[in-house]
Specification:
alpha/beta; two-stranded parallel ribbon; globular
Length: about 150
């Protein structure tokens, strides 16, 4: 068990399964196919993300350094939240970028989404968490890797 503390962007408590990428996460390339085809879950469609390509990330805890890609990144996050197929949490090792922040905050405020977001967890967090680890997230920004 290892504990980390980050900055709360969108508050919430949850226990779930980690999906981990050590590279920038392209929201448009990852979510677009599932959203356009009105799927019931998001399977990462970004072929450039070898760690997550083809993985179901709906209701999972997405552990990442940052998001990358198109300026539509925030809108894409908001779209999958409105469809209720979003990851349950975004856990950033680095400070959140403005595009991801806008999508998460708008989803929380406009769609009353249950999405959780914590940033500034540090490089050690991303070095420690492994694919499919069980993680507990607390309202105060505490993240505990249970496995």
């Amino acid at each position: 068990m290892k504990e980390f503390k980050g900055r709360v962007i969108a508050k919430g408590a949850f226990i779930g399964e980690a999906k981990v990428t050590h590279e920038g996460f392209n929201t448009l390339a990852s979510f677009q196919k599932s959203a356009l085809l009105n799927k019931k879950e998001v399977k990462v469609s970004d072929q450039n993300n070898k760690e997550l390509y083809g993985e179901n990330i709906t209701n999972k805890i997405l552990c990442l350094p940052m998001t990358i890609g198109s300026t539509t990144g925030g809108l894409v996050i908001q779209t999958v939240c409105s469809m209720h197929i979003n990851p349950r949490a975004f856990l950033f090792s680095e400070p959140i970028d403005s595009l991801a922040a806008s999508g998460i905050v708008l989803s929380k405020v406009w769609q009353n989404s249950d999405i959780i977001c914590i940033d500034c967890l540090g490089k050690e967090f991303l070095d420690t968490v492994k694919q499919n680890d069980k993680i507990e997230i607390k309202d105060d920004g505490t993240v505990i890797i249970l496995d």
